[in-house]
Amino acid sequence: MIISVKEIKKFLICVAIPLLTGFLSSMIAVLLSQTSFQIQYAQLIKPDFAPSAGLFSIIWPILYILMGISAYIIRSSNKSTQKINDAIFLYYLQLALNFLWSILFFGLGLRFVAFVESVILALVLVIMIYRFYKIDKTAAILNIPYIIWMVFVIFLSYFIWVLNK
């Protein structure tokens, strides 16, 4: 099986979009707060189950790569254009919400708003995974680690907000 240069470019773009989105969100949050994530995170009162700051810089790129691969699979599907467009709309909606979270939580210090936003993000993500599943099961399965992580983020955001009010 020979893969065309066009397909390779499409794949790389699909993977680069979430990675760049996460990077830009981080940069904007740091610019707004004038403080790095590591310093801010260290200064917060956190629940006992809170991971170290370094774990986030490992987990998020992995999740972004999985997101990008799943988007590529959906975009490459031979299902109806409407189904694909609906699924990709949800993909970009969750990506936009993901982009906002770091800005809200770290950049603006709006912990409660970030918590509420993470709940909305998880709901959109569940719907997106369902739509992906209707098109391609593998694309949906690639997002399971992401939804598991988001459930954890919801709990972590809530407890950080409560402990730091």
TrEMBL record:
Major subcellular site: membrane
Domain of life of the source: Bacteria
Species this protein is from: Intestinibacter bartlettii CAG:1329
GO cellular component, one term: membrane
Compartments it resides in: Membrane
Membrane topology of this protein: Multi-pass membrane protein
Sequence similarity: Belongs to the TspO/BZRP family.
Protein name stated in the entry: TspO/MBR family protein
Any Pfam family the entry gives: TspO_MBR
InterPro entries assigned: TspO/MBR-related_sf, TspO_MBR
Upper classification of the organism: Bacteria, Bacillati, Bacillota, Clostridia, Peptostreptococcales
Keyword RNA-binding: no
